[in-house]
Amino acid sequence: MQELLRVEEVSKSFPGVRALDQxxxxxxxxxxxxxxxxxxxxxxxxIKIITGAYEKDSGKIYFMGKExxxxxxxxxxxxxxxAVYQDVMIAxxxxxxxxxxxxxxxxxxxxxxxxxxxxxxxxxxxxxGLNVDVRLDIKNLSLAQKEMVTIAKVxxxxxxxxxxxxxxxxxxxxxxxxxxxxxxxxxDNGAGVIYISxxxxxVFEICDTVTILKDGKLVGTYKVQEIxxxxxxxxxxxxxxxxxxxxxxxxxxxxxxxKVEELNGSRFKDVSFVLHSGEILGFYGLAGAGRTEIARAIxxxxxxxxxxxxxxxxxxxxxxxxxxxxxxxxxxxxxRRLQGIFPPQNVEFNIDIVNYRDLLRRFMxxxxxxxxRHLSSDLVEKLSIKTPGIGYPIYQLSGGNQQKVVLxxxxxxxxxxLILDEPTNGIDVGAKAEIYRFISEVVKQSKSVIFxxxxxxxxxxxxxxxxxxxxxxxxxxxxxxxFSEERLLALAMKYAMKKEDVA
Length: 503
Known about the structure:
Oligomer: single chain
CATH topology of the domain at 3-244: Rossmann fold
Radius of gyration: 24 Å
Number of helices: 18
Strand order of the largest sheet: 6-9-10-3-11-12
Distance between the termini: 54 Å
CATH class of the domain at 3-244: Alpha Beta
């Protein structure tokens, strides 16, 4: 394989932070290079230097044998270096076809050949296996479809080096398979790929080599076969063993906090279970099994068609999230960016938003901001949320710290029942360990947690019981002594194979 990219002893500092410290790596054509490390390790800074978004302080970068002395995003694209970021950046108010050809519409004399543009876009999407109407506006697509269109747009430009930053965070299993097929085609065509993901299993599935960064420094570069498995990679990244990740304490099970009887919704049927204080109850199932829909119905975000919900032994009616919140139920949604946080607002607002009615000054109609700041500051300290201050915009925090802000929100409401939907998705292993520890501390306080996840090792690591959802039905329940990935997967397929209608 021919050398494509060479980074030599590159350093970059920001005020008070040494983001990169003499980092070197080489990527060859036809190679898929994993780039891993905790948040703050320097991954984002490195790729922004490679793509010209940041200017390095020192060091050298070579591409196809020539030094890039002055880099910027336009120069980077002209060289054939492209990046697909986790936060999708495409024009929302124009069609897929127009996004493909922005700035280079086919036509003559200033007249756009709309038919050719749509036909060319459709032909390319068909070739890569993406079935979507090219006339649709981007804003009408799902987040996963937007991600795939962004990737397709980059592929259309025949990249020599393409950087993927958490590309599967919003993709379904089928879309992930399609992406991996495309990456393998790029590799076969001689392109180089840098693949960044917190999902370390993906690194072992798609990458040839892996470079590890820690605290802005290079730990090393290894062949994936050398490391063999995730359990051997984590200590290199975080300095601790995988057994230390899943912090599990024995907590005595208390009284019943939540009971669901024969609950029916648009995507689930006859769901019944009991949740006790001091308990972590896992929900597992394949994509689309109905786990999220059950959680949203209990929280009042989706309509319940029939069935009963009991909180603290009393039958309750939950018509909307406000009813659920007043009953002591908190919910961390699967899509943190769209449903969990208020991106333009600061940390204080995102924590206190569910408490502003209680924070009003007596006999007045404005918020006691001193009390609000005290409440949010205490929780930031308690959960070790890394932020320059509670007035800092939440969208500028790492994914793990954003999750901890949402968790702080429900702690501020003294929620007794926490429903956490994929709480560790898209965050680094260090932040995951902190969230597991937080959950264990929560249930020690006579509270309970419903933990929804697609990642079996974490369910097995922290749950007391696991309910398996298959095609909208409960396919089985396993207690801690019965856990195994094989049994859980078999139950997840139980009704999926029959494809029964749950509506």
